[in-house]
Amino acid sequence: MFLFVIIAYASLYVGLAFCALCLATGLYYLAELAEEYAVIAKKINTWLILSIIVIHILLWIFDEFKLNQILFGIVSHIVYFQLLKGFPYIRVKSISFIASCACFLISHVLWYYHFTDYRTPYYDLSQLLGFFFSCVWLAPTALFVTLSIGDMSLPGVGGLPASANNDILTPKSREHHHKQNVFTWIMDTIKNLTGKKQTEQQHYNNNLPPNFINQNIFTGNEFRSPPSPYKTL
Fold first, then answer.
1. 209 CB-near residues (< 8 Å, 6+ apart)
2. What pLDDT score was predicted for residue 3?
3. Which parts of the chain span the membrane according to its record (predicted)?
């Protein structure tokens, strides 16, 4: 029985890791499609957000969901809709982006309290996952996936005006715009951190005296450092 439990749990975690890998691969493929069809991606995001707002209204009319959660869900998707004004170029420090992140987190809290309330009818786990996927996760996920098209789109597509073409051709403005893209900004931050560590390690190795390893002398359990390359005064 003990071996069976170990195999079952190990297989479960391996399956979850495989599902996560497949999901990441699918999102990356969608991001590649969004890079090629930027205008269509913006239209899809627009109709998607509008459709979810209509779904919130229908849930309030037919299923009598609480008005507070419905109103906040509608307001959240209106905030998401504001991100499409500069699509696909979204500034990380903009008010609309920060408000979208806050609405995304608060929506989870409000809907959690709604479904755990004793006055709310009982719903299966599959029903809850379906609701959260369509009404809470779908629009933010679609926007996050399409954020990666910022560096590949041509001037005049989405939110970038065609008059900015000359500015983009300059290295300084290209670097500045490159860092405004959310997905790329996250990847650049990680690369900068790892690159800084590699630079410090390279600087340390360059300051070592030549044949440092060959000059180390081990005698039994004792370690004797090589003579210092700097002369003492």
1. 215, 226, 229
2. 82
3. 6-31, 43-61, 67-83, 95-113, 125-145
